[in-house]
Please model this.
Amino acid sequence: MLIVDKEGILIRYNVKMEKSMTPEEAAAELYPKDELYKPIAEAIFEGEEDDVIEGLEAAIAAGKDPIALIDDILMVGMKIVTDLYDQGVIFLPNVMMSADAMLEGIEFCKSESGASPVTKGKIVVHVAEGDVHDIGKSIVAALLRAAGYEVVDLGRDCPVDEVIEAVKKEKPMMLTGTALMTTTMYAFKEVNDRLVEGGLSLPFQCGGGAVNQDFVGTYSLGVYGEEAADAPKMADAILAGADIAALRTRFHTH
Amino acid sequence: MLIVDKEGILIRYNVKMEKSMTPEEAAAELYPKDELYKPIAEAIFEGEEDDVIEGLEAAIAAGKDPIALIDDILMVGMKIVTDLYDQGVIFLPNVMMSADAMLEGIEFCKSESGASPVTKGKIVVHVAEGDVHDIGKSIVAALLRAAGYEVVDLGRDCPVDEVIEAVKKEKPMMLTGTALMTTTMYAFKEVNDRLVEGGLSLPFQCGGGAVNQDFVGTYSLGVYGEEAADAPKMADAILAGADIAALRTRFHTH
Amino acid sequence: MAINRFTTMAYSEADEMVFGNAKKPVKAGLDLEIGAGYTTAEVNYAPRPEAGETQEKLVNEYQRITKDIMARMVQVGFPSVVLETEHVQQMTNNPAWGAAVAHAQKTIMEEYNEEYGIKCALRHTPGDIREDKEFLGLRGDKMTVVMESFDQVAESGADLLSIESMGGKEIFDYAVLRNDVPGMLYAIGCLGSMDMGYLWQEIAKVAQQKGVTAAGDTDCAQANTAMFIAGGLLDKNLAHTLAIVARAISAPRSLTAYEAGAVGPGKDCGYENIIVKAISGMPMSFEGKTSTCAHSDVMGNLIMQCCDLWSNESVEYHAEFGGTTVQCWSESLNYDCALMNTALKSGNEKILRDLLMASDRFRDPQSYILAYDNAYKVGEAIVKDGEDIFLRAKNAGMECCNILNGSEGLDMTKFELGALAKATAEFEALTSESETFMSDCMEKYSAEVPVFKPENYGL
Amino acid sequence: MAINRFTTMAYSEADEMVFGNAKKPVKAGLDLEIGAGYTTAEVNYAPRPEAGETQEKLVNEYQRITKDIMARMVQVGFPSVVLETEHVQQMTNNPAWGAAVAHAQKTIMEEYNEEYGIKCALRHTPGDIREDKEFLGLRGDKMTVVMESFDQVAESGADLLSIESMGGKEIFDYAVLRNDVPGMLYAIGCLGSMDMGYLWQEIAKVAQQKGVTAAGDTDCAQANTAMFIAGGLLDKNLAHTLAIVARAISAPRSLTAYEAGAVGPGKDCGYENIIVKAISGMPMSFEGKTSTCAHSDVMGNLIMQCCDLWSNESVEYHAEFGGTTVQCWSESLNYDCALMNTALKSGNEKILRDLLMASDRFRDPQSYILAYDNAYKVGEAIVKDGEDIFLRAKNAGMECCNILNGSEGLDMTKFELGALAKATAEFEALTSESETFMSDCMEKYSAEVPVFKPENYGL
Ligand code: B12
Ligand code: B12
Model:
């Protein structure tokens, strides 16, 4: 059998470019100093739900307000995770597991206080009618939740009617759509036209394998999203006052 | 050096499928029996202009009418050539050379009689504006001439205005366009629209590397031509009464 | 039909495997023999979206595609070709549509075979439509439609029957985004294999009745999904070490088709086919450097190492400067095959195979494992416990981890190594008892995955 | 700059030639060396028609193209890449547009080179716009615009300068449709070479001033036109034996660039480059089985035999399932290169070269002559009378006929044989006196070809 050294044939750019710090080391630099908060942030990073609850119990026992804890530590801990993801230090499954742990923590805080926290905003997500490819959509939903948004997930193969109904009912700050097939992405145009007809004007973020910026640019509410990680950035931009034109300027980079 | 027999690796389908007759044998079977006509047909097949003239001189000396000779032998001889081309027995350069010889013959007959023969019809050919690829157009023109049509050749990179002017002036039975670049073929749409605007309704045969049937089908006068050899067939069909719809039915085979 | 598990390797050593040769060649279609000493291109295509509106438009589109390909083959002098039609959903949901397409395509192929003597065969791959909006519905009415589709395409001219079945996918989608190795093992190795056993016995029956070939299945829905999420070297959605664990586990799953009556050629997108070929000796289709029209690849050359058919996976039908897409890609594929066939004919096939393999061996953990020598080892781990679908899948995953842990010349990132260490530990902590594992998983995933319905698997 | 004719072969025997190695490698761009022991992909692309409307849109389109390619390269781990921008006419006619595109592309390439260390270079190929609607205008105002374009792209980031020059084309277009071998010889061998000498001394001067590389030219306008008209095996527009005669004659013509100061890499679509490499020892680009996006080929593998750069010729920028077209094709090309580089590294390059050659040697008369051993012989016939542009072109055509007449293992049709016999006889009947030939042709074609203007060639 012929074994040939890779030098000159290929370059593992991922190995070549790798940050020298381990994810754990990088995270450790970012944890809050507070004795009560640090273990919770750590538990979120590790994706250990039980440890998150344990940490929260300790904090509540020490007099912290459960609802305040959501913003003060759960969201803070999660931000460490998503920042590291954005920097390429950690990978998506870590984010997913951390998000699961954080969401458990929020549920726990809510049940402890009996009150509901104010979320950053509500977002409706869906996969285009006729399309069953829903992994990208699930990632988008998870990252939005991880960033503190309330997500209404309409699932895959979602009829245009249902999308319009949901927007009417939920009054979200933005709507996302995912399509992986050239045959299904045209549903976005229809959703757009029905929204406009109904006087519903909100940014309609579209992404997924089949979709491209040129296509999304052809309907008035459309904003193209390349990576799932762009979804929370778009939502944040909306909170900061960006309209559709501004969103396009920022996210239509091609 | 490694030499590997082709068996199992490739098949020369052209060799495998080759007709057993040589072109000369195939042509010999088709020549007219007439002693005066046969040498002329042969000379056309060989593309020997001087022999064509010699044969015509002999026929005229024997009392044949120069203008009648055009139809009776020059066109007949040329048809042998184009039929053999259609059957794949001979190749294009033979057709081109035969056509040159036949056209010389026609000129000779005309000068002998002083009169002008009636052609089967007039056809305007051009290459789309902005496009210099003119070989396909030259082949189309040659085959149309070979089939007895009068061709007005507007050349390459031909502005839309000039095409419209030529159609107005020449009143051809059909117009052809050739385009090899995706950037230039849109000129055909413009030509079409300007013709329609001007109330000029004639079949507009379009072909060339960049052009396809779907595109040509989008404008009202368009008929798609795949091979140059289709051009005389289309003209013949028009003479036989076909309108644009009928031409499309026959030539839009994809 | 019964299920006969593989408990031995078809090849006595890895080095025996080459492209264009399978222990058990398959005759199919018009004069074609697959794995019988030469490779053949398998051309794949997708109709343009507009073409799906009516049956007539769709048939017309496939006629154009078929004519274009056959015409190009004879223009460049290629001796053989396979066409694969992966159904768009209308074609499976309306079995008559699929049948009309198969008939139209086969008619053209017969004309070319008659006129030029070109060897050819037609594969049809109905979509696995056994689901509704929320849930998989593997065993209900939709199963009937799928079988009706197979029946009709076989009747109308399809020579090779395939499907990319979805069993286990609801658990897998959940597990893959959570680095959940036992979950992937359950989804692919257990549920996937169980569904395939059920489904493929039926397909093999149809094939037998109609005198056509039950070809094979791939773990597109799971191992390929993992591979796609893993992506290129710089993507950060899934460790490539985990993607290859999923792939290793998918080999015993895809093997099930051949245990239930299929005989190959396995379908193109099954990168696990190299392991399946080592075990079954049946011919396999692969795709790689000449399927970039459909997806990027981190082992474009390597995966060609032992192919019998060589595919472009899928390309939308449209025009390019050089002709239509199907003409461009079919020509490129065939040149690859001409190179392999020249090597075969001149006795240089092992050198070429090794060059293909060596070019990507260290490109990625995935290519490292699928290099034919390592793939063979994974195969051995599978047949060792060939009768137990859980154990053999677990073996495959563990062997994959072991080979990576002991790899030489392969550089991995810390992240890949971390995921590998975690997977290795999880495998080691697992029970060896199939029943224990099955019931633990049933409990865990029934609770965690709302769309999981055990009755889909007869559980 | 002066013209120094080649009168000896760079290689002492045909077998010395392989892919990835040239006697005279060329350093260019960012850390790249061409022909220095490895092959590199050369990616080509055409903007979408709409993108040509304004300079801004065009620059934007090329930025997307460049980014897409560079991103794909690092995702799959390829060590090097060349980008070739063949100007659309707006870019040459407005030299500032071409310059803006070159600058935008190079900026992105520099970023990738800096961040990842990927080796890369940018080729710009202005269009040969030296003509008006009716006539070639090789030496007038249009020449000034072309040189201005070279000057500006070189200033703005282009590393390699090329053009596909058109000298002789007005005669060739007439001759090729009439099987007129002396006409092709006059067009390509004499007029083409004369124009190239004139043009390339100027280009070499610009390159020297700007510190970039004068790369090379191809006989696209003539030999490739013949190859396209000849088409596939079943086309009947031109005998393939005549197409290869035109190709053989084009070798001494394209060689002129290197005699006037160019140093390679020769441009992709020059199938004559194999002969040019044998004579000049300079690195060459080729295209074949992985340029089916641009055209079909009857020697897709063979033509890869001795490439230094490996190209896809041209593909329109648009989306495919697997990414944009430039990403798909650049990845496929690079896998071909990875295979060749693996062979080079393991000492198996001659076996792979021979397999590539053997796969197509007998596919067509054209591939037979361009097999490296026969190409070398044509090269020898050229350098024998290297100082006389007429004689060496005639020698090339005659040697081509001789090799075909004595071919072994190549089946030709009666039609091909007939055309070959006629060409052979015509060559034998030709004068050996350059001056006689030139003045005879001048008389004949001035009469027969209305668009022929001798002043284009300083005649
Ligand atoms: C996995 C997969 C499947 C799985 C899907 C599993 C699942 N639960 O989703 C299964 C096996 C079920 C499947 C089935 C089919 N598939 Co499929 N599939 C794929 C594959 C291989 C990968 C897709 C994927 O998951 N990618 C990874 C995810 C994470 O990427 P993503 O969704 O694009 O999301 C990323 C970004 O786009 C972004 N994003 C997504 N949405 C949004 C939204 C916003 C707002 C933002 C900001 C970002 C964003 O975030 C993500 C990460 O950054 C692709 C191949 C390819 N080239 O894409 C084919 C592919 C999409 N499938 C295809 C086909 C044809 C099918 C079938 C029809 C096959 C058949 N014959 O049965 C069926 C579909 C049936 C149906 N009615 O839908 C074709 C589509 C061709 C076309 N016409 O367009 C493809 C392209 C394969 C091919 N090359 O031919 N498939
Ligand atoms: C030869 C050639 C040239 C020659 C042209 C010589 C000449 N006098 O025509 C030269 C070298 C001059 C040339 C120049 C250029 N070319 Co050029 N050229 C080609 C090439 C290689 C072959 C074209 C050809 O002659 N084919 C043979 C003829 C006989 O075929 P045809 O015209 O299609 O005709 C046949 C049928 O279509 C039919 N037909 C044609 N018309 C009609 C009409 C009717 C009514 C009917 C019935 C039938 C019919 O009959 C013929 C035989 O059956 C093609 C490659 C390709 N893939 O096509 C590129 C190609 C067309 N060129 C191309 C380009 C880009 C150029 C340049 C811009 C290059 C440059 N950077 O300078 C310039 C053009 C400048 C300009 N403003 O136009 C691109 C076009 C890309 C695009 N955007 O669409 C191509 C596709 C190459 C590629 N793969 O990139 N080119």
Notes: The mean pLDDT of chain D is 97. Chain D has 16 helices and eleven strands.
